[in-house]
Amino acid sequence: MFAKRGAQSLLLPLFAALAAGQAASAQTARARETPGEVLELAWVAPPGCPASAAVRTEVLELARVDRKASSRLRANGVVRRSDHTWQLELTTEFDGLSGERALSASSCRALTDAAILTLALILNPDVERRVSEPTRTPPGEDESAPLHVVLSGRAGFQLGVLEELGPDFALGAGLSLGSASLWAYAGFAPPQNARVTGSSGPGGRIWAGSASLLGCWDFSTETPFGPCAGADFTRVEGDGISVANPERAVTYWASGQLGLRAGVRLGAFVTLRLEGFALLPAQRPSLFLEGVGRVLRPEPIGGKLHAGADFQLR
Taking the model in full, what pTM does it have? Predict the structure, then answer.
């Protein structure tokens, strides 16, 4: 009995040791089978620079790799400020290959971005191809909104500037930047007769010239439509008719100009336009025939309706 107990007392510790060893071996095997983090980053930077966690997150997002992978990148980065530049010492180890890099930039953010791109390229060389590809603009949006010079011609009608409804013509030029544009126009309303009373008798033969400055906005560059606002400067000149001693008279006034315009594109460089404007005179001067009476006075609200085309220069 005593001999059997002694043998059992010697065997129990041995079995326990073997069991513990097998458990440890199993845990080690499981640890080797479990992939580690794809990026181990030690990042030291002064206050105000991106922190280590933020840098690591941006690297993984740019590289587009799984956070768990069989290959592991170990990186150490130390950022220092030197005079007016920022310096980075970066060491890396990936798939048995080690590397050292020294980077510099004018700001800590720029230096960090360079380090992020460098680490992402080590993890995934395809990043370079994605970064170099141009960003495509979604349909319906302006691509690069270049500045263009545009020439414009208009023909239509004016009302409230001269005595009666009559033709009106304008030539202009503009600068277009995406949906916004700035225009300058010179206009002309051909002569018409204005009588003091009735359809005959003394009066004047009058005509008008104008200069307009407009700012316009198109809600869409594909089918242009939008508002315009600006100022119009009008010059009216006339000669007396049916009077003994006809003389010439001139008057001026300024008006606010508000309106809408629509367009249809014909290719990349030509746009057909239809537009209407209201004219709000700041003052309403008159033309008189001495001893006879008033020949012309602008209406409180005038208007212009034009059709024409814009020609974009290359």
Answer: 0.54
